[in-house]
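Write out the 3D structure for:
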Amino acid sequence: MSTTPAASPRLSWPLLLAGLVALAFVAWGFWRAAQPPAPYFQGQMEARETDIAPKISARIARVAVTEGQQIQAGDLLVEMDSPEVRAKLAQAESAQAAAQAVADKARHGARPQEVQMARLAWQRAQAAAELAQTSYQRVQSLFDQGLVAAQKRDEAHTNWRASSAQADAARAQYDMAASGARAEDQAAAAAQARQVAGVVAEVQAAQAETALRSPVAGEVAKVLAKVGELSPQGVAVVTVVDLKDQWVVLNVREEQLQRFAMGSRFAARLPALGDLRADFEVNYVAVLPDFATWRATRGSQGFDARTFEVHARPLVPIEGARPGMSVLVEAQ
């Protein structure tokens, strides 16, 4: 009985080709995984922040804003209570009223009744002087006739001269009352009134500061004020950030600084916004302090590479970008 040898299996070319492709794909994947990641620069977004502090020390009565709230320039942030400012304002207003009254008196001069009294006193003194003159003339005539002694004549003459002097003094008093205060006195009184008015304006400005308002528009980032606390002068109680005033900050070694020259543009992506891509333009380049940035390029020779801080603004404001978000710039 004879046996027939079995036929050897024949390879399928399509299957062999698919295996080779799969093997190549796996090899490419291992090679790709073994490659170092593409180098990139990492920076972070910044925005303009304004720390708002009161000019006076006062107790916080009400906080009118909350964190995250959108505000406009001039919106009320915090109301403060200061009894000391109110008391100083009352004192200054009283002093202003008194100084203004003195200035008005100097400007208007004496009252009509005072002028009339001075005129009558002058007329009375003038009449007395005329009577004394007439009496002296009579005594002089009698003296010429030898009827009175020289003593009587001298007494009459002295009385006439004294009465004339009193009349001149009364006339001067009348003229002074009629003409009013001197120009120098009026100027001094007016200056005093202006000085006190300046004090009132200063206290009113301090009182206006008890209602703390925002000088800028934006978003309330921090609220440090609490009702009932004593807010010191010059210590920030609210921080406002302007999210439209954006820029990115990058730290770049000097051997790669040429790419970020002033006025140059580059593209970057923001992972926090779904890898949103945006274009930036460099507007600031400055070297960082030596102690934190130097690095030797070689162990035994070469130069120390410095690090520079680079600021770049987006060509178009990035919607949704916030301070602290990472910005990635792929190295070329």
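Residues 1-8, 296-300 have pLDDT under 50 and may be disordered.
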